[in-house]
Amino acid sequence: MSVRSTFTRNGIKAHKHTGQSGKRSAHVNESSPSTQSFRGGHEPKPTDVFIAVMGVTGSGKSSFISLCSGKSVQIGHTLDACRGTGTSKVDVYAYKVSPDRTVYLIDTPGFDDTSKNDDEILSEIATWLGASYRSKILLHGIIYLHRITDVRMQGSARRNIQTFRDLCGEDALKKVILVTTMWDKVQSSEGDMREKQLKDTKDFWGWMLSKGSTCHRHDNTETTARHIVHRLAKHKNLIITDIQKQLVDQNLQLDQTAAGKGIQSETLKEREKWMKEQQKFEKEIREAMRQKDREKEEIMREERDMSAAMIRKANQDMEAMRLNMEELVAQREEREALLEKRIEERLEKQMKKKQAAHDKEIKRIQREKEAEMKKSREQEKQAQRDRKMVEEKKTAEQQRKVEQERRSEQERKAKAAEANRQSQNSSSKVQGWSPYSVTIGDHSCAVSGPRYYKASMDGWPKMQAGSEWIGAVSFGSSGAWIARYGGGTWKYSLPNYPYLAGKLAHHGVRNLEFCVLGPGQTYYARWVNGVWWSQASEQANNYLTEIANRSDGSKVLAMAIGYNDTYVISFGWATGSTIRGQSGHRRDLKGYYSDLNEFANASSSLDIVMASVGYAGFAQIPGDHKSLVLGGAKNASLKRL
């Protein structure tokens, strides 16, 4: 997004970074889910858990999911600036409960939203549930959130509960947990009374509880949120909702489903009300015309036109629900394609603006260099004229000495100029990463320096490509790797890294300056023109953007991406093969790598010149090292833990 980026492509949203964070926001945006849409392009595991979170707008769904997943969830469901406020979008957020088990929380838009009609909300939820059912993805249960602060159940609240019951069906209610939220905003006695009313009233929660649903309180803590989720996750029985059966198995239109009929009934009532209003205003118009009351006639015409508009809107809403499963998916894909186009246009505009600024800066530098060269030529011409005048006034011997001195001076200046030129060239060749590197992959690792390279296994990458020796290497998941050789040549093998491979194909590797791989398609890559892309956590992307926007010219010198979105980022300046200075480093180890975190905390002035963290299995380090995780300090020594 950098993305919200929010992963995308093959069903997962990633964020694009070019000076702006995008975040890979670790949340998944789905239109019609496939079985590969939830795990970075891989099939879901049999142990994975899918739970829908429902409730009216403002009931606390986003906060609940954020507490469980540890991911930033946009409160109020504002999905994108192109979309405006409110949303009718289904989002999926994942968090690991163990290395081989992931819980996916499906965040659904809420009914009773002021910016969306209930039929639009039902259409979005039904489309997602139907498409997931066709893709063999079944729910482990549903969590329905309700504000305990609601004083009484209004008509709209009753309708929302009825719609939820119709959507689930009686069989699915056994895997429904009814959750009350916002207990910190009411007196305990008052909350107890309202909870009892919800449980005891048949039209509220009473009937659902009698069919096997359970009721729990959420006190806005991670503990209660995860406890509620794990009550559903620990069961192996999956559910199929009535609306999934009706749309997919029975091939009904949305307005023919039980939930659709309920909402259509309310829409018909609204249309009938507006039709009566329209008739009343027509009568008032005729009366005003008879009395020649132009002002009243104009007001009544405006009221009549508004009623007519509401009638047309009701007709459009009912027509929009006369769609079967295939038509619902096609409609959704059309909306998503339009949104993607708008986002791409906006990003393209930002890219052009940045490129224009870059071109302007290049021209300014060229003008300064040309001015310096012109001044140098004029100075040289003046020096030649001065020498000529001296030579004319001197005797032949003096002229010989002057000539000899002039030549000596020329040689000295030439050497100084050459030394200065070499120094300028050397200082202009800013190396994009530290001359030292250490990397740990799934089952391999390597250490490299200006005069050293050692890997834990033979094979690719080769130590030598033509006449060039390997300078640095980064290992990723599933045997992926990318290596830089002495002359600036890059070699790589990137199975299961389609996004990075696409960026390398688009921008080329000739001007690639820095690249590091992480687990599960995560990476960071930067080109010499400043363009960079990242597929990492939202927090890491924010820091990468902050570094890219620093006015002191700092760059990322070393970076490691590890298990469960952990990361270490070092930034500063490098010239040739020498680290000139460091601005600092950022890290978030999320409680993992405790020895590494303890070492980093204990080192008050740590300059990191290379970094790597293991993320999949155990890697045997060459020599007698057990696990090489950090290269630190200005003398490029290695920290062994």
TrEMBL record:
Coiled-coil portions: none
For the keyword Nucleotide-binding, the answer is: yes
Q: Which residues form the AIG1-type G domain?
A: 51-190
Q: Where is the signal peptide?
A: none
Q: Where is the composition biased (Polar residues)?
A: 19-38, 420-433
Looking up InterPro entries in the UniProt record yields: G_AIG1, P-loop_NTPase
Q: What UniProt keywords are attached to this protein's entry?
A: Nucleotide-binding
Q: GO molecular function terms here?
A: GTP binding
Q: Which SUPFAM superfamilies match?
A: P-loop containing nucleoside triphosphate hydrolases (SSF52540)
Biased segments, Basic and acidic residues type: 368-418
Task: State a single Pfam family of this protein.
Answer: AIG1
Tell me where on the tree of life, at the top rank, the source sits.
Eukaryota
Outline the segment boundaries, as ranges, of region: Disordered: 1-44, 368-433
Q: What is this protein called?
A: AIG1-type G domain-containing protein
Record lineage: Eukaryota, Fungi, Dikarya, Ascomycota, Pezizomycotina
